[in-house]
Design brief:
The protein is built from 8 helices and 7 strands. It is α+β, with helices and mostly antiparallel strands. The longest helix has 37 residues. The chain is globular and about 75 Å long. The two termini are 48 Å apart.
Length: 256
């Protein structure tokens, strides 16, 4: 490689690193300013600082959690739940996020009761979502490495007594690998294909079709979490955990 070309590549890399560091320092400054405004009770100002971080292309569970707290202090339950849900998506095991989300959900007007479910389906849902995606990724990797290690030992060890023990352990680790990887695939597929949102408007009428002149089906209030099944222009078809469904304008929703 010619020296001039090499210097050009190095210059570009240095420039990219400098821009990245500058952007990160800017996001850190915005976050600190937002936190200071929050401590001073200036929640709208804090939100303005936090939005600058999002506009810069950054996200974090701490950022979304703080935004949820700001909206909760402003008694805007819909946006508070939206950002708590965003924070939980990035950090599902955090107890503070879960607690504040439950607290915000207790302020929601609508109480959606789940229909009775066959106990085997309940058991399967509990098993499927017992671990988070990050935990399943770790468990799959660890069990796979153990399986490969045990298989290598089995192939090279000549002692019959040890080989019998290794066969038993291999069966356990292989079943674990298949189980964890299967649950991981199911959860990733479900997450990618499930689009969820939160009602942000104080109240919104759900209609039978994507038309203002269609029949009113039911009314939802801010903070309700729902699933988005279809979109037609400015309208989205939504469904609730109790089986109800209908159409509403997307402007009333915030996507998780």
């Amino acid at each position: 490689m010619k020296p001039r070309r090499m210097r050009h590549i190095v210059s570009v890399l240095v420039l990219l690193i400098a821009v990245s560091l500058w952007a990160q320092s800017g996001a850190s400054y915005y976050f600190q300013q937002g936190n200071q405004a929050y401590r001073n009770g200036r929640y709208e100002v804090a939100l303005d600082w936090y939005r600058k971080i999002i506009d810069a292309g950054y996200e974090s569970p701490e950022l979304y959690y703080n935004m949820g707290n700001c909206y909760f202090k402003l008694n805007r339950i819909g946006p508070a739940i939206l950002y708590y849900e965003k924070a939980r998506r990035l950090k599902p095991d955090d107890p503070e996020i879960r607690f504040n989300l439950q607290l915000a959900n207790s302020r929601v007007i609508d109480r959606i009761e789940l229909p009775p479910q066959f106990f085997l389906f309940q058991w399967w849902e509990a098993v499927k979502h017992f671990f988070t995606i990050s935990q399943l990724t770790t468990l799959t990797a660890v069990s796979y490495v153990l399986t490969m290690t045990l298989l290598t030992l089995y192939l090279f060890l000549r002692y019959h007594h040890w080989r019998r023990w290794l066969i038993g352990l291999l069966i356990v680790t292989t079943v674990s690998t298949v189980t964890f990887s299967g649950l991981l695939v199911l959860n990733v597929h479900e997450q990618r294909n499930r689009i969820e949102g939160v009602v942000l408007s104080p109240s919104v009428t759900v209609r039978s079709a994507p038309d203002e002149n269609s029949t009113d089906v039911f009314v939802l209030h801010e903070g309700v979490k729902l699933r988005l099944d279809e979109q037609r222009g400015e309208w989205v078809k939504i469904s609730l955990p109790d089986g109800k469904s209908g159409w509403m304008r997307q402007e009333h929703l915030g996507l998780i």
